[in-house]
Write a structure and sequence with these properties.
mainly beta
């Protein structure tokens, strides 16, 4: 038995007792047409079964903390964003902003054995709205 998603092969499974099973975690979010193709044998004709599988986008949680609040001009403040998802390792970027103005963007990443993804931007607020930025990625 051959299994496919939107015409792309996912794998094969042995037919035992009239059933074949395939488990996958390779389906992207969206509506997918899944098919199972049986090649047949000398006494049974080939056949195909199909269904529509909906794969939802995974939930995620973003937590933001500040190293000190309130802060003063010229004093360093560290913001830490933690992005987690029960569906696996989130990827992409985290943008830190103040009043709609971007302070810095860092890539989400995964430390081995840790599902949390941390992005840290450090900056010193200065008079007249100027910012000194230093971006870094670090393990908590």
């Amino acid at each position: 038995m051959t299994f496919s998603s939107d015409g792309n092969p996912l794998g094969t499974a042995v037919l035992t007792g009239g059933k074949a099973t395939l488990t996958t975690s390779a389906l992207p979010a969206g509506s997918r047409t899944m098919t199972a193709n049986y090649a047949g044998n000398p006494t049974v004709l080939p056949g195909t079964g199909a269904l529509t599988q909906t794969v939802n986008t995974a939930a995620m949680t973003t937590t933001l903390i500040s190293s000190t609040s309130p802060s003063l001009p010229g004093h360093a403040v560290t913001f830490t964003a933690t992005v987690t998802s029960p569906a696996g390792a989130p990827t992409g970027t985290v943008t830190f902003a103040s009043d709609g103005n971007a302070l810095g963007t860092v890539g989400a990443f995964r430390w081995p054995g840790n599902a949390d993804h941390l992005g840290v931007v450090r900056w010193r607020p200065r008079d007249r709205g100027r910012l000194h930025r230093r971006r870094e990625l670090r393990r908590e």
